[in-house]
Amino acid sequence: MATREHSHRGRLFPWPAFHRHRDSASTSDMSAHVDRPTAGRHALASLRILTGFVFLWAFLDKTFGLGYATASGKGWIDGGSPTKGYLSRVAAGPMESTFHSWAGAGWADWLFMLGLLGVGVAVMAGVALRLAALAGTAMLALMWIADWPPARHQSDGSPTMSTNPFADYHLIYAVALIAVAAAGAGATWGLGRLWERLPFVRDHAWLR
Q1: Given its phi and psi angles, is residue 11 left (phi above 0), alpha (psi -120 to 50 degrees) or beta?
Q2: FRET partner for 142 with CA separation of 20 to 30 A, picked from 38, 44, 94, 178?
Q3: What is the pTM of this model?
């Protein structure tokens, strides 16, 4: 009798405890499985919004002279040129003379500013991410060439103070644009789903 009672007690307590532990572990695993994609979407949405804001803020500062990169009273609406100061100071790289000839040109100012505005608004809103990534990457590639990180010295012999011969912030921003476009990150905290339902976007995948 004592043996049977002991065996019955063994079945009654340890096994249900084991099942409870297993069920708890399964619930935890399921929760982690659900949370990881959600966290990933939120991370990409955050990256998208911050990257878009880099472009949009540059447009606003250069347009209105908000006192950061562009001094007050020197904005585009005040008659200042968004490209003249930057491109005229290019002092290294294979396109140095070309950039000097572009500096302050009306077409260069308009293309640059429309690019900043278009990419910034599209990326922050989560629409037309493929086009925005293409345009933004082209702009960033030109800025990378203008800065020319591989150079150790400027054309006058002074040091460029370059800290890396290849990877700089222009490259990082370009990869961020490509990543959010490839991942279709416009649906989270953005208008991506609404944009994709528009008839002309639905019929032309390259507009997504």
Answers
A1: alpha
A2: 44
A3: 0.82
